[in-house]
Amino acid sequence: MMNPPPVVLFRDNPKFRMNNTRSLPRHVRPFLLSFGLLLLTVVVGINGQGQIVPKKTDKKGEKESPAVPGGTGAYAEVEDPKAKKVRESIPIDDEAPVVFLPKGAYYVRIEDLARAAADTPSPPLRALLLRYVVAFDRITDFQDKAQRVTPIPAFRLGKIPPVFGVFDLDDRNQPAALRRMESTKVRKIEHYEELIVEEAERLVNAKLLEPPGVERKDRVEAAEQLLAGALLFHDAARDQSKRKGIGWEQVRAKVADTLSAVRLTRLKLASERKDWALVRSLGSRMTSLYPNNLKLLEEVFTARLAEALLAATESEKPAELENARDLLSEFESRFPGSKSETAESIREALKEKAKNLFEQASVALRQNDQKRAQQLIRTVETIDPGHAGLRDLQGQLTGAYSVLYVGARHLPERMTPLTARFPSERQAVDLIFEPLLEALPDDSYGVKYRPVLANAMPTAAGLSRDFTLVKTAEWAGLGREYLDATDVAGTLKAVRDKYRHTWVGEYVDWMPDPVRVEDHTRLRINFASGHPFPLAMMTTKVLPARWLTAENKQLDDLVFALKPVGTGPFRFVGKGQPTDGPTEVVFAANPTFARRAGRIGQPFIKEVHFVDLAKVADPAALFRSGQLHFLPDVPTGELAKFTAPAAKLKGQVDVVTTESNRRIYMLAINHQRPELNSVALRRGLAHAIDREEILDKVYRAGFSQFHKALVGPFPPNSWPIPKVAGSVPPPLFDSSLAQAKMSEYAVRGGEKTLTLLYSTDDARSRFACEMVRKQIETATATAVSIKIALEGLPAVVFHKRVYEDRDFELAYVPFEYRDDWYPYGLGFLLDPEAQSQGGRNFMRYPPRTVSPSREDKLLGQQLEEIRHHADFTGKLSPQAQRLQLRFVEAMPFIPLWQLDRHMVVSTKLKFYLDDTGEALNPKWLAPDHAFAGVARWKLQD
Questions:
Q1: Over the Cα atoms of the chain, what is R_g?
Q2: Close Cβ partners of 821 (under 8 Å, ≥ 6 residues apart)
Q3: Beta-strand relationship, 753-759 and 787-793
Q4: At what angle do helices 822-829 and 877-890 cross, to 10 degrees?
Q5: Where is the composition biased (Basic and acidic residues) (predicted)?
Q6: Which of 125, 147, 128 shows the shortest CA–CA distance to 136?
Q7: Is the C-alpha dihedral spanning 256, 262, 266, 272 positive or negative?
Q8: Confidence band of 464 (pLDDT split at 50, 70, 90)
Q9: Cα–chain-centroid distance for residue 824?
Q10: Which pLDDT value is given to residue 83?
């Protein structure tokens, strides 16, 4: 019978492999592996007392053999039970000695130790490591004779069988034949793991040079190698039941604890020697191995801080000072509130360095040495971002400190995702806060997704996505508070629990399960069912959830909204009015943003000023003087102010019409008003409005190519609207149908006067609503004679009345779909569960006070049905076209038109979104979210 090969443990993949000799052809080895495993199976059992006892064989006449260990195992170096397994790839050693094993012997060669022995230049350490390359236990009898044997399965403090079998190992690690051993003749059993722990402690703690001539750093490294090998062996043996029974847990704990302590000792020794490359390598490895051992990790990072302390106190090189700041930031992010004296010393040293560099920069500016001043200021900004006077000094730089001026109809006030009301406020949110993934405009695909707070694109695991966060993303203004995975989880949990019915929570029904936090930088987000494009759901802005909870604040806290704190490229500074211009709201570059990997120098634009244009008669003059660079939304009727020769802006600005327009206009209907429960009335109003006439007279300003009438709830050129001849929806304007529906309404005796609210911030709204009033009253004169009372309100009052108080009958409002998944967006708007205060269904459709009509029921069923389809071409697209028909039958709101959105852009402003050097054409920007990717924008002469 062929003897089985020895077991060789090496870190190549999660399973150990068998390795024999070079003489065996490689194509034979897979067969040999299976055959060897079969031969290594030991025939043992357990009696009622938990003792290992021999089993009888099937062959008659063959004697019973004592219980013996045997088999192989799986590698699992997992010091921290919750840690992710870390394995290194080590090639197979084809030079392993030939070993012929007796049947049943558990012979284990730890190849890592053989490698370490071969690599060490120290003969004493080589001999020491080779002593433990083959795993063994040591049995001592009452004559103090010690014998090495192959590992036995039972722990020495457990119940050892009265008679058991062992395989002795000779000096060449060759196993002898099986021999019987009586437990009464055994004085002591020392297991391999225990022997290595003793050896490792001896190496680390020896006061004299033992072995002679060996430095302590080399002894400690050898101790780590021994312990890692022991842990490797132990886990393999336990996995394959070659170490079994009670008592082994404490053995493993002792090995793992000693190993972590030795690794920490080795790290500290490297720090004392200023071997920073080794410190970084060891620290990174320990961070991976012990992600949940906070006490150990704090010691690891404290050791790493020694490099930062040396640089902060002795170096004048900007790169080394910036590296010190990075190390300090990483320590602060992992251990908020730590009282580390080393960290405090670094902090104070960097402040002192920043003070000196600031003074040097001031001198350089007085000497007009702009280049040197810029370099010094950049270093100050990196190592002490809150340094007093820094922003004023930056403003004195010529060309290097660029300020972007953005025109706004309303200056931003509420600047958090849940409180923003106007386009400028949503733009401010994009400056301050960041999502895991950012949706960026793309001239090829319309939109692309890029990791922002995520360190990379997520990995898919079924319906789950695994994220790793960027390091040292700091909440600007909170005093060394850093983004943590619990901030992401806390934001999503709060949205799911308290704000699921707001627009921020539109996608949480796809994420019903709690976010699983693995550690402070890793988390898993689970989804309940498939979405056509899950990345679209990962764009929710992350808020400082831990800080808000500690301050007893909610995500929609108005005080926080007025002075928000985020991780984004800009931070809110305040509101002011220059002596020579209109009122401004100022955002300055977040100095901590540039410390992230790949963000050096960003944002390239150092300030963003929102300029109040409400009282500016000639905005073109601001462009000419450099006090305006970007107008994100310009009405068609005002384009001549920038394109006419009198504007004197030829070659200075570009006027573009955005291709990324998801905004429509409608007459919102309050379904809590009984008269508006009538489908006949709603359809009568919708069919009475001649949209083309209003667009021509109010909005087009002679440009017939702009603006389109709606035929349903979706933008005119969007994918849910059928494009095939014969299936294209007809125009909604139909005076005959309007009269018929109004006659149907009149029979039931409904209300004849309705109030239509509009915002007075745009004069065109008043003209449009006036025409709507006339058209409705004319179309219904012969039927029921509906009267429309107009009421104009300032924008802030209008918003509160319609969206917060829900005190309206009809309201002229815009509605913008969040993304291209229009049927889902319509479902979110009309979600019957989202009618509560602050919910996105501000029209409160369908009404809860009365039974819904047949048309309302069918529309509700269609909206619910479409949520269950993720197959775009197979199910979703046909369902969306049916949804269009159901909508027109029920008419929960009155679709009006889509107004093209124009932007005026300074030719100096370049929209870089990546590092390719190719700027994006601004026509692909979505005006309300134009600042996606703003960190890479540049102002260039």
A1: 37
A2: 532, 533, 536
A3: parallel
A4: 40
A5: 55-65
A6: 147
A7: positive
A8: confident
A9: 23
A10: 42
* Helix or strand run (H / E) with residue 421: none
DSSP secondary structure of 805-832:
S---SEEEEEEE-SSS-HHHHHHHHT-G
Joined tokens for residue 714: 């979706």
Among 559, 539, 568, 561, CA closest to 416: 561
Distance (Å, rounded) from C-alpha 771 to C-alpha 739?
A: 18
Q: Which long-range contacts (CB under 8 A, 24 or more apart) does 438-444 make?
A: 438/539, 438/932, 438/933, 439/536, 439/539, 439/819, 439/929, 439/932, 440/913, 440/932, 440/933, 441/660, 441/913, 441/920, 441/924, 441/925, 441/926, 441/932, 442/924, 443/920, 443/921, 443/924
At the topology level of CATH, where does 401-433+568-661+901-941 sit? Answer: D-Maltodextrin-Binding Protein; domain 2 (3.40.190)
Token duo for residue 505: 């929570």
Beta bridge partners of 52: 46
Are 381 and 373 spatial neighbours (Cβ–Cβ below 8 Å)? no
Sign (positive/negative) of CA torsion 708, 710, 716, 718? positive
Residues in the chain: 941
Concatenated DSSP letters of 640-693: HHHHSGGG--TTTEEEEE-S---EEEEEEE-TTSGGGG-HHHHHHHHHH--HHH
Across the strands, what pairs with 178?
167
CATH architecture entry for 663-898: Roll (3.10)
User: Among 898, 870, 544, which Cα is nearest to 721's?
Assistant: 898
**What number does CATH give the domain 434-553?**
3.90.76.10
Give the relative orientation of helices 216-239 and 248-272 as an angle to the nearest 10 degrees: 150
User: In this structure, are strands 52-54 and 44-46 parallel, antiparallel, or unpaired?
Assistant: antiparallel
**Terminal Cα distance for the chain, rounded:** 85
Q: What is the pLDDT of residues 6-53, one digit of tens each?
A: 444 543 333 333 333 333 333 333 333 333 333 333 333 323 322 223
Q: Express the helix, strand and coil content of the chain in percent, nearest 5 each.
A: 40, 20, 45
Q: Which two tokens stand for residue 115?
A: 């490698």
- The DSSP secondary structure of 752-783, one letter per residue, reads -EEEEEEETTSHHHHHHHHHHHHHHHHHTTTT
Q: Give the H/E segment covering residue 303.
A: helix 294-314
- What is the C-alpha separation between 298 and 305, in angstroms, rounded? 10
Q: Are strands 810-816 and 753-759 parallel, antiparallel or unpaired?
A: parallel
Residue 287: helix, strand or coil by DSSP?
Answer: helix
Contact 42, 71 (CB under 8 A): yes
Contact of 34 with 41, CB cutoff 8 Å? no
Phi, psi torsion values for 698, nearest 5 degrees: -110, -40
CA distance 451 to 880: 30
* Ranges 388-392, 491-495, 576-580, most confident: 491-495
Average pLDDT over residues 276-282: 87
Strand partners, 402: 605
Beta strand 137-141 with 186-190 is antiparallel
Name the phi and psi angles at 123, rounded to 5: -60, -45
User: By three-state DSSP, how is residue 365 classified?
Assistant: helix
Contact assessment for residue 467 and residue 503, using Cβ atoms and an 8 Å cutoff: no
CB distance 907 to 919 below 8 Å: no
Strands 630-634 and 902-906: antiparallel
